[in-house]
Design brief:
It contains 11 helices and 5 strands; from the N terminus they run H-E-H-E-E-E-H-H-E-H-H-H-H-H-H-H. The protein has 227 residues and is an alpha+beta fold. It is globular, with a radius of gyration of 19 Å. The relative contact order is 0.15.
C-alpha cells in the first residue's frame, strides 16, 4: 500500500494547525494540515511495516500513524499535544472521536520539561539571528511567545488552549517587527519564569495515563485485525 493511500483511506482524525488554529492567521497565511491514520493491522504482519508518518499527499500536509502519534503525545511533545486541541477539525471518525476523548489522559507535568526544552531551542535560534542579522525572525518570535503563554497557562489550569484570543493584536505586532527584541526577550523570560513557578503546584498529574492510552490502542488494533 502506498503511504499516501494510508492517509487518503485510513485517516481517523485531521485538523488544521499553525496560524489558522492559533487565531493568528492573516491574508498570506498557509493552511497547515495535520492528521492521524490507522494502518490496518494486517500490514504489521509483513517484514516491511507501514510508515510511522507520511508527508502529503497535499501541500503542507503531514500525518502520523496512530501508535507513533500516541507515543509522542505520551512524551508531551508540544506539537502533538497541540494537534489534539485544534479548534479546526476537518475529519473525525468514531476512532478519532475516541482519541480526542482521551486528550486529558496525555496531559501531565511532563509538559513543563518538554515545552521548556523546545522553547529554549527556539530561543537560541532567535538569538543567533540577532547576532548575525541584527534582528530575529519576527514570525518565529511571535510563535515562541504564543507557545510560552500556552505552556504557562497549561501548567496553571491543567487545560491546553491554543487559540491566542485577546493576545492576537499584541502578537501580530511582534510579527510585524513593531516591538523591540529587548522587550520581546523580556516577555519570553517572564513567561518562562511564570511557567516554572506554576509547575510545582500544577493541577496536572505527574505522569500521563499510559494504561488508558495503551488499552485504546490495543482495542483499536484488535478491531482492525477482525475487520
Amino acid at each position: 500500500m502506498h503511504p499516501h493511500d494510508l492517509v487518503r483511506d485510513h485517516t481517523i482524525y485531521a485538523c488544521v494547525m499553525g496560524s489558522r488554529a492559533f487565531g493568528l492567521a492573516t491574508g498570506s497565511s498557509d493552511t497547515d494540515r495535520r492528521g492521524v491514520y490507522l494502518a490496518p493491522t494486517p500490514l504489521f504482519w509483513h517484514f516491511d511495516k507501514p510508515p510511522t508518518h507520511v508527508d502529503g499527499p497535499a501541500d503542507e500536509q503531514f500525518s502520523w500513524e496512530l501508535e507513533r502519534f500516541c507515543e509522542l503525545a505520551l512524551r508531551a511533545n508540544p506539537n502533538i499535544l497541540e494537534c489534539l486541541h485544534s479548534p479546526l477539525v476537518e475529519k473525525l471518525t468514531p476512532t478519532g472521536e475516541e482519541l480526542l476523548a482521551l486528550r486529558g489522559a496525555f496531559l501531565s507535568r511532563r509538559a513543563h520539561e518538554t515545552f521548556a526544552r523546545y522553547a529554549a531551542g527556539q530561543h537560541r535560534k532567535l538569538e543567533a539571528d540577532v547576532r548575525v542579522h541584527g534582528a530575529p525572525r519576527w514570525k518565529h518570535a511571535m510563535h515562541l511567545l504564543r507557545l510560552l503563554t500556552s505552556s504557562r497557562d497549561l501548567l496553571r489550569t491543567g487545560a491546553l488552549r491554543i487559540d491566542v484570543g485577546e493576545e492576537r493584536d499584541a502578537l501580530l505586532a511582534v510579527k510585524r517587527g513593531e516591538v523591540s527584541w529587548a522587550e520581546v526577550d523580556r516577555r519570553m523570560t517572564r513567561l518562562a519564569e511564570e511557567a516554572d513557578a506554576a509547575a510545582d503546584r500544577s493541577p496536572l498529574p505527574p505522569e500521563p495515563d499510559r494504561p488508558r492510552i495503551e488499552d485504546f490502542l490495543f482495542r483499536t488494533r484488535r478491531a482492525s485485525a477482525r475487520a
